[in-house]
Input
Amino acid sequence: MRTRKVLFLPAAAVFGFLFVWGLSGLPAFGDYRGPYGIVLAQVAVSERHATEVVGATTFDYRGFDTMGEEYILFAAVLGLVILLRQLREEREDEEEQQSDYDQRLEASDTLRVLGIGLVGPLILLGIYVVAHGHVTPGGGFQGGVILAAALMVVYLAGRYLAMKRVRPVPLVELAESGGAAGFVLVGVGGMIAGSAFLYNFLPLGEPGTLLSAGMIPLLNISVGLEVTAAFVLLISEFLDQQFVKGRDET
Amino acid sequence: MSFLPYAAAVWLFLIGLYGIVTSRHLVHLIVCLTVVQSSTYVLLLAIGYRAGAEAPIFADIPPETPVVDPVVQALTLTDVVVGATVSALLLGLTLQAQKRLGTVNPDEIGVLKG
Amino acid sequence: MTVLQAALLVLVALGGSAVVLVRDPLRQAIVAGIFGLLLALLFFAFQAPDVALSQIVVGSVALPLMIVLTLAKLARLRGSDE
Amino acid sequence: MGNLPALPVALPLLVAAALAATASFPWRRMADIVSLLTAVAVTVLCALLLARSASETLVYWYGGWQPRDGIALGISFVIDPIGAGLATFAGLLMSVALLFCWRYFESVNHIFHALMLVFLAAMIGFSLSGDLFNMFVFLELMTISAIALIAHDIGHRPPIEGALNFAVTNIVGSFLVLSGIGLIYGRTGALNLAQIGESLGQGTLDRLVIVAFALLVAGFFVKAGLVPFHFWLADAYAVAPTPVCILLAGVMSELGLYAIARIYWTAFGGVLGSHEAELQAILVGIGIFTALLGAVMCFLQHYLKRMLAFATVSYIGLFLVGIGLLTPDGLAGTAMYVLGDGLVKASLFVSVGILQHLRTRVDELRLWGLGRDLPFTGTIFVVGAFALAGLPPFGTFLGKSIIEEAALDQGYAWVPAFFMLASILTAGTVLRAAGRVFLGWGSVPESDPLSEQADLETEPEAEGARHRAPAVLFVPALGLLLMGLAVGIWPGLGRAAQEAAARFVDHQAYTTAVLYGLPAAQPPVWAPHALMGHGLLYALGSTVGALALALLALFGRNLPYRVSRRLVDVARAGSVRLRALHSGHPGDYVAWLTLGVAVLGGLFGLTLR
Output
């Protein structure tokens, strides 16, 4: 540890100095006038009928990046599923005979009522955020996490079994893959329409309304689906870990 | 004063690295990695900021209003969500490390030496 | 730069340091949640509501939750080894 | 068909999603067939792109967003022969790896295949992209899918650690790249490489450009595994499943170097042009240092996969020398060398996989004499070792000769000697292992506690009959070796590489093609460098030297003592120190990484101003 610090601290000092030195060549904070963002801010509303320029950039001008990002998420979730399932399968072999281990974790009635009251509004909020990604701040990424949180509340309010009924694993996996594939398929749609991959081939509609900006809402929905499924999978994989092992805690 | 955002970004990068280097717990190490990551967010958003400009959303502002750079925001917003899933993957590796190696202290792992 | 931005930047820098220096992982998860919230506030102050929204849902909810679940599992794994 | 460039990325991603969707209803053979067919189809698509790009650079704008007044609105693929060639190569190696998976392990399911296809798409996207941030996205995608693939085989201990070290260092490396992108974006307001190049070319070379370039280069060095960013590499390669090793060692590291070449000749070449000599010296120096350190570490290994991993480090150093010469000749030589070496090394990894399959161990000492009844595998292994040394007419020979000539042209007269040294050490080590394993040569070995520990953890990756190598394992090994030979004797390939390199470095033509849609008027007039006889001499030296080193290591263990006991003691103590540095500790690795950034940035800062 000591030698490591001796190595690291001077190196970090030099690195920090260089970093600061380089950054001092930037325009002062607040004076940025780069052409890319200015052009996009000028044309996004008129050309894409999307009032949310960040959304238009994410899903249209630089939509190809977002496809890559979506697949990073996809790959990370697949990797985690592999990692944690192996742990769990070994456990299940050992503890197959114990099937009632989830009985213990029942929530109190108050918590349950509170939770159920929360689920509805959370789901509505999530759907709203996903659907309005091209109009107001938000979109598939943020809304997807909110929707996943709503499903987690179902778990918190009830029991694991309830949760299991709400999210049958194959269905969630299907949703995750569907979300990922959906993005690519919308991209292919642009090719079929006679232009390039991810060409915005749908009617643009009236700016500021729900049905506008062409394919952007569609991409938001597929990302929303992917993110919801991904986070439900992630968190429930971690939760499953708890349950399988939870039995021998007491 | 106008250098403060950049200084904060550099600081977060360095302190996060320091945490990784000195960490004695893999979960701690992973959280330090997210601190380094947040440095890149602060850096990108600070670069694209325009003094006195609005957020790049024309839902209720007139079309000619100056807005901050939308591109850096687009780059950052996806990365925030994706970064969390990457951390989840690393947390999964940590669980496996506890299971297979019996420890989550990087000082005690060292199977792959030489 | 506004006073709000400057104050948030200082808080974020301090928060990041705290996340690193708190060595107990469970406490660190809580500090990381607060740090995530501070970052989100900073992003709002930088006129980036989209990023701030991402940061709130991920940085101060999803990530701390996953960390806590991992720690709980780690404790159990450790218990079963002994 | 105008949309051809989008297909090699879109197709594997779509199939990956389909495979993951059916993960709950596993049908193993189906996954094998579908993923193999996809990889082959992608290879064909990339080859088509390669053929088309031979006459003119293809520019493809996603979303149909053509640039306006020189400002790129969207993301482009810019396809020239080197990028398309690399993509084709990635597809080819992926096809072989998936063929190898067929019988490789029993326990894989659809998710493994899905991750392989995502990894393939990421490598191809990275090779073809003309946008800096888009390259970053594919870099991340490559990293994340590779983490999952390395960790896939977690039935035993080391993969966890290898995957962790890989993940931590590479993710920090990607933050360096992202910070560099931020700096460049703050200056130019652009993410498109051609536009960045145009914008930077109008400005001056100042601290921001230097630091941004240093951050980007350091980040890509992490991916490539240059010293001192290389520590993760041996850990990850040593533990990854063999099919994944083929891709990691054959393409992924090389992509890190490709990125440096790409950003230099599109974005930074103009503004850094006045300091070419200094940059050249730094890159060549780092390359040689890496080549030697990797070669020495390779010689000290007994664990075969880790041995090949350090050989990879060593050759990455040689490739950096080729690119760092900053001439089309050096680049052409590197392209050939990467091709030849990737195929040969993949063949060696497959041979090691066969040993692991049949003998359930991967350590040279513990395998002593156990390969005597495996004449075919042994022959492939030995020929592979000679090919690694650059034996004519393998592709490695041609590539290395072109780089050596280019180095002589640039006044680096000492470079060929170091190339020879690195080749002797790495190939000699592999030959030593071959002698021990397949011929039972040498004395009964004293055991190496470190390698033994690692070997205890190794379980057979494949199941089934243990007497003969199944054809699906053997055919790839032979095929890869033959392809490595074909690269060397295919008439005109060397010349094509030189033409491709000449186009690659022509950044004026790149910019006009990307931003203004004008095809390069004429491929630059190019007089290919006639190869002198030196190369043959060096190759002979490397081959004989490698053989001599192997024999010395096997039979002449006491010889060095007779020369000088003192020297041997010093060397032994040094090697213990050197091995101790490779501690397997992620904290150490990140500390070294920080030091590397500081040194690299410091060198750039001092010399490039």
Notes: Residues 4-517+529-607 of chain D form one domain. The first helix of chain D runs from residue 7 to 21. Chain D has 24 helices and two strands. Residues 59 and 78 of chain D are 5 Å apart (CA to CA).
